[in-house]
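Retro notes
What went well: the complex prediction finally ran end to end.
Inputs used:
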Amino acid sequence: MRIIINQVWLFLVGVGIAVAAAKGQSHLISESIFADCQKAIQFTIGLAGVIAFWSGMLKVAEASGITETLAKWFEPILAKLFPGIPKGNSLLGLIALTLSSNMLGLGNVTTPLGIKTMQELQKLNPEPTKASNHICTFLALVLGGFSILPSTLIALRAQAGSKNATLVLGPIILISLGGTIMALLINYLFLKFNRQGKRRS
Amino acid sequence: MIKILMLISQYAIPCVLLFFLGAATFRKIPIYEIFIQGALEGLKTTLRLTPYLLAIFVAIGLFRTSGALALLTTGFNPLLKILHLSPDILTLGLLKPLSGSASLGYTADLLSKYGPDSSLGLTASLIQGSCETTFYVLSLYLGAVGIKDGRHLLAVGLLAELASLIMAIILGNLIHS
């Protein structure tokens, strides 16, 4: 993906600049860059507090053995998706925590949990600059976007004056479940037929 | 059922926190010191994330403000006519994998413009609720641990998104009628 992400970035930036210039609105370029740099840093600063808080809390949870207990509970399901993670490793507990908060739509909690999970998964990764099979499966689960409670969206619909703001709940559970199954399936196929990890980069 | 789910979402965080604190007290762990250690690690992580976030924010911003996104959507117009789709839905579908906040804002616009219970409003809600922000998630999660080669993950994210998008358009029209 190294090449793809480089090309995507080049495409977005390059085409953006070219279009603005072609329309004779090149002043938009520097305005947009300035505004978004500012936004990115503000966003990161906002994120820094939550990530620090939840990283602290997770450290407490780990030290008290909570993630290990969770791992034991979820082992029957998750061990099938993540073969080869040593038994008794609290990693499966972290994965379960991340996925549950993602399902409940707790975005502010999911990001710190997910990053912590990535760091733990990375410790088992033999090739640190390349995503391991475990990392691929974990991210496929996240990218599938399984959601049982899109609370922000329901609030947004109610605010817009919907007569039935929660009407979309059932379909969203269905669609996001379908999306997650799709993501897992594609990931499974890629891992199966690309076992040697033929480098396209 | 829905009420129960709403209650869960409201009390999930306080319950989890109390549970953490209870377990830590029970195990007699120096909770404050461990919290500080973890929080420091969290801050270091955020610092490492900053360039990735900056790169993705600037790229998406340029692509939108310059009008390139609108131009791309216009290019799809003939196809949209055949499929009886609104260009707004395509824009949302293109925006969603790029940026969560931008697509949320766009959904809010669409809901107030067409009404949340219209066919388009419902479809937009379904897209917003069930698709994931692929580029953001990948650059954040892979960036956090310094992975440069994400293998097939972009394909996984975008294909899952496409599947969800198609299901959302079909179900959106179904629940409206």
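What we learned: Confidence is low (pLDDT under 50) at residues 197-201 of chain A.
What to try next: split runs per interface for comparison.
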